[in-house]
Specification:
With about 525 residues, this protein is an alpha/beta fold. The chain has 16 helices and 16 strands. It starts with a strand and ends in a 12-residue tail after the last helix. The structure holds 3-methyl-2-oxobutanoic acid and zinc ion (ZN). The site of 3-methyl-2-oxobutanoic acid has 9 residues, from strand 6 and strand 7.
């Protein structure tokens, strides 16, 4: 009988912390549904103290999920109270509290004398804060996880001490993050082995690992930790997360599955759902998957050279260590078109993991027909992009009602736009360096605002000249970024929609600005 490795998915928390990957509440709910279908053991749904929207998203996910839902909290009462407020309706709530434990972090983040004069005194304060946080979290739920942030660079003796203390305080999972992605696989495995051997009460808690990918070693480090005693792996779909990301869920799961000859472990993941989950996360976050990405990249099962193709035709095993079917890569491309009915669309969306209410289906069907009118064949990736666009539109943002562009090799690009917002209509024209610039300027003029566009990308969602174009625009306001996404067969229209969405999100943010940006230890 194989021992189960718990898969703790942090796509919606650490993954969402990827630069530019912010998700709205509806998108998070939809991804959580798909993660449940994928069979993850824990969904880390967010960091409720960091913003009202984070709190709302965790609440919404809790209201319909059967999986363990974790919410992150710094080791302070306010955060833990916010986490509980978000989690209290969950069937299986987990509070995940954390504090920094490495010398570098303690000296850097707890530099003030009120945490102690020397490193040793500060370590004592941090240990006490960790214990108090776990005890406080335990007053709400029996399922409490503690993370020693930057454990990868933490002194082993101090790490053992704090882990032992939080287990005595009631932590049921102890997480050892390699926060900066600094460790080496054998070194990280050794760290886990030392805890197994040196912490007397370690058997009362599950050892978890959470590896970042700064040196491209997150998956290797996680697997090494499993070999030495870890039984929960924290990871994110497509490997998204802070900086270079987290360990990628699909790589860990498939490595364990494909190389089951080397160990006695298993996961509960329904691997056939990997592809759909990966595409949904990519469509909603706007984070494009590199073609050569293991397991889920477009080229992961493509064979280009004649020798490889010949080998594959004779026997698949020559160049494939797993089948595309085993991770849910579709082998036939089902195509919809303008004659497809609403039920056909609903069934295809359901197969791709999207569950829609009657009203939502109505709206999506109207947009689908619009697209099908412009391009004859509508592929799965078109539908994913359409769903991403549909979900990303919170109420109260600006609507592009009309757009006219004049552009050519011998003329000055000129754009006219008409924008609707609430019951107001704004119309303006402008010229620019190119059609997109003219369009953005016309929008700014119409709305009487300006902004700093920090990133602008356009890509085609599917192959061919009729492909849907997806535009992503990021604007910056001080330290805060707002991302907009727009989709159309016309890339200028997609760009205008994306820009309007980013501007709308900025407006909404400053309108309800109770949002606190988490920048410190919370005390
Ligand atoms: O990387 C990290 O240390 C984290 C913790 C909050 C678990 O994300
Ligand atoms: Zn992390």
């Amino acid at each position: 009988m194989r021992e189960k490795i718990l898969v703790f998915d942090t796509t919606l928390r650490d993954g969402e912390q990827s630069p530019g990957a912010s998700l709205n509440v509806q998108e998070k709910v939809e991804i959580a549904r798909q993660l449940e279908k994928l069979g993850v053991d824990v969904i880390e749904a967010g960091f409720p103290a960091s913003s009202p929207l984070q709190l709302e998203a965790v609440q919404r996910i809790c209201s319909e999920s059967h999986t363990v839902i974790a919410a992150l909290a710094r080791a302070v009462e306010n955060d833990i109270t916010a986490a509980w407020k978000a989690l209290k309706d969950a069937l299986k709530p987990r509070i995940h509290t954390f504090i920094s434990t490495s010398d570098i972090h303690i000296l850097g983040k707890f530099g003030s004398d009120r945490y102690g004069a020397s490193l040793q005194e500060k370590q004592g304060t941090v240990l006490q804060m960790a214990v108090d946080a776990v005890k406080f979290a335990k007053t709400f739920t029996p399922d409490v996880e503690f993370s020693a942030e930057d454990a990868g660079r933490t002194d082993p003796g101090y790490l053992a001490e704090i882990i032992s203390a939080v287990i005595d305080a009631g932590a049921t999972t102890v997480n050892i993050p390699d926060t900066t992605g600094y460790t080496w696989p054998s070194e990280f495995g050794e760290k886990i082995a030392r805890l197994v051997a040196g912490v007397p009460n370690i058997s009362k808690a599950v050892i978890s690992v959470h590896c970042h990918n700064d040196l491209g070693l997150a998956v290797a480090n996680s697997l090494s930790a499993v070999e030495r005693g870890a039984r929960q792996i924290e990871c994110a779909m497509n490997g998204i997360g802070e900086r270079a990301g987290n360990a990628s869920l699909e790589e860990i799961v498939m490595a364990l599955k494909v190389r089951s000859d080397l160990h006695n472990f298993r996961t509960g993941i329904v691997t056939e759902e990997i592809y759909n989950t990966s595409r949904m996360v990519s469509a909603f976050t706007g984070m494009i998957i590199q073609p050569n990405k293991a397991i889920v990249g477009d080229n992961a099962f493509s064979h280009e050279s004649g020798i490889h193709q010949d080998g594959m035709l004779k026997s698949r095993e020559t160049y494939e260590v797993m089948t595309p079917e085993s991770v849910g890569v579709p082998q036939t491309n089902i195509v919809l078109g303008r004659h497809s009915g609403k039920h056909g669309l609903q069934a295809r969306l359901a197969a791709l993991g999207y569950k829609l209410g009657d009203q939502e289906l109505e709206t999506v069907y109207r947009r689908f027909l619009d697209i099908a009118d412009k391009k004859k064949e509508v592929y799965d990736d078109d539908l994913r992009v359409l769903m991403g666009d549909e979900m990303s539109r919170p109420g109260g943002t600006y609507l592009l009602d009309y757009m006219h562009i004049n552009s050519g090799t011998a003329s000055i690009p000129t754009a006219t736009v008409r924008i609707k917002h609430d019951s107001q209509v704004y119309e303006e024209s402008a010229t620019g360096d190119g059609p997109v610039d003219a369009c953005f300027r016309a929008i700014e003029r119409a709305l009487g605002i300006e902004s700093m566009v920090s990133t602008y990308t356009v890509r085609s969602a599917t192959a061919g000249r009729q492909a849907l174009g997806e535009a992503l625009v990021r604007i910056r306001d001080g330290n805060i970024s707002f991302n907009g996404r727009g989709v159309s067969t016309d890339v200028i229209e997609a760009s205008a929609k994306a820009y309007l969405q980013a501007l709308g999100l900025r407006r909404l943010h400053f309108q309800n600005s109770t949002t606190e940006t988490i920048t410190d230890n919370g005390v």
